[in-house]
Amino acid sequence: MKPLSPDTTVDAQRKHYELMQRLSPEQKLSMAFALTDATRQLVLADLKHRYPDADAEELRRRFIARVLPRQDVIRAYGFDPKAEGFDEFDRESLRRIKKIR
Asked: CB-based burial of residue 5 (10 Å sphere; 0-12 exposed, 13-18 middle, 19+ buried)?
């Protein structure tokens, strides 16, 4: 077994799997919802930090642009994040950043 993270030992990874297997489906689903909510809160906190003068509507649009692919934003929400300057974290930019590191 290869650890999923470079800072995790094989033993720790194995123990994690054992603990996760003991959880009920309801517990696993609850954890997934909690992680999703925590991620949402982190993204919103970052946006509020980066754009302290943004109102609630701008933050909502920036959040949508951050978490969804551009084409989905255009199709589902009717605005183009790139045209509004909300594309600083588009997936292509993130891929290029990862290649540089």
From this structure: exposed
Range of the domain at 63: 53-101
Single pTM value for the model: 0.72
Domain membership of residue 13 (yes or no) is no
Domain total in the chain: 1
Residue-by-residue pLDDT tens, the chain, 101 positions: 777 788 889 899 999 999 999 999 999 999 999 999 999 999 999 999 999 999 999 999 999 999 999 999 999 999 999 999 887 665 555 666 566 65
Residue 17 lies in a domain: no
Residue located via tokens 């470079």:
6
In a domain, 76, yes or no: yes
